[in-house]
């Protein structure tokens, strides 16, 4: 493990019990980082996940069930990280939810929840980990935005607003830390076959009366010129690069990995 990028570091990945977050957590663990998982799921499955990651990568793994809509629980999670690992060196703000409706039909409670989880939670985690990162003159904050942080789609006003806001937060925090060893960047994935996207596929298949495979191809054809889903492993590899010394002057970037989506 002597040459691994993140030996001795601790990574907190929010929303990491499945999907993109878990893929990134796995990749960071493979580079030697201890990992604090967060998210919802079946307790026994999360317990097994911790054991499996620790065994596979030879790192320490813990879990905290903070609800990312609740600032007090986020504070408790950061306190837990400090108690368990001595603090957070790499913060990946990944937790997110989605809801689709035109703005005049958008439930107010859904708007509030999406803004809270997809944007405001990243403010809270960042403000809480930055003092230690500044003191150590090293830290990495990686915000999982989206192509929807760069361009819009109809019916996704809350998600688009939150992700655009997350990129704004990224840029402001990058400027605030520009003379330090802390970097702040955003990753903007296109379609990744997560449970969120699979639901869109399922809904499309049901609506159009087509197979699941045909619905996947149709979804990608609408937006993603490569015709392929981005994978959590690819996003994890980009996160590792952003944590490396080679990326120490990459600051305030919104880096899209989207099969050509926003190039159109």
Architecture overview:
It holds the Pfam family adh_short. The chain is of the alpha/beta class and 264 residues long. It folds into two domains: 10-190 and 230-257, 3-Layer(aba) Sandwich (Rossmann fold), CATH 3.40.50.720; 192-229, no CATH class. It is 49% helix and 13% strand. It has eight helices and seven strands; from the N terminus they run βαβαβαβαβαβαααβ. A seven-stranded parallel beta sheet has the order 3-2-1-4-5-6-7, with helices on both faces. α1 packs across α8 (232-243). The longest helix is centred in the middle third of the chain and has 29 residues, at 108-136. It starts with 9 loop residues before the first strand and ends in a 7-residue tail after the last strand.
Question: What's the arrangement of secondary structure elements?
Answer:
Layout (H helix, E strand, L loop, with lengths): L9 E4 L5 H12 L3 E5 L4 H15 L3 E4 L6 H15 L4 E4 L14 H29 L2 E6 L12 H20 L5 E8 L5 H14 L3 H12 L8 H12 L10 E4 L7
Parallel strand pairs: 1-2, 1-4, 2-3, 4-5, 5-6, 6-7
């Amino acid at each position: 493990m002597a040459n691994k990028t993140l030996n001795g570091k601790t990574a907190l990945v929010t929303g990491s019990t499945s999907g993109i977050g878990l893929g990134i957590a796995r990749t960071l663990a493979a580079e030697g980082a201890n990992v604090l998982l967060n998210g919802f799921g079946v307790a026994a499955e999360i317990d097994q996940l911790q054991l499996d990651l620790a065994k596979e990568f030879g790192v320490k793994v813990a879990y905290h069930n903070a609800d990312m809509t609740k600032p007090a629980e986020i504070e408790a999670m950061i306190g837990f990280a400090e108690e368990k690992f001595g603090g957070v060196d790499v913060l990946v703000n990944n937790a997110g939810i989605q809801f689709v409706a035109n703005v005049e039909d958008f439930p107010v409670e859904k708007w509030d929840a999406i803004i809270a989880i997809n944007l405001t939670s990243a403010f809270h985690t960042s403000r809480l980990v930055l003092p230690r990162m500044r003191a150590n003159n090293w830290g990495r904050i990686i915000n999982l935005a989206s192509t929807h942080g760069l361009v819009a789609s109809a019916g996704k006003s809350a998600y688009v607003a939150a992700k655009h806001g997350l990129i704004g937060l990224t840029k402001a925090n990058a400027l605030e830390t520009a003379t330090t060893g802390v970097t702040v960047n955003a990753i903007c994935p296109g379609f990744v076959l997560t449970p969120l996207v699979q639901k869109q596929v399922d809904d499309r298949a049901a609506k159009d009366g087509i197979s699941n495979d045909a619905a996947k191809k149709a979804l990608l054809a609408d937006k993603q010129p490569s015709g392929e889903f981005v994978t959590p492993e690819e996003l994890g590899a980009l996160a590792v690069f952003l944590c490396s010394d080679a990326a120490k002057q990459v600051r305030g970037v919104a880096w899209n990995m989207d099969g050509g989506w926003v190039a159109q």
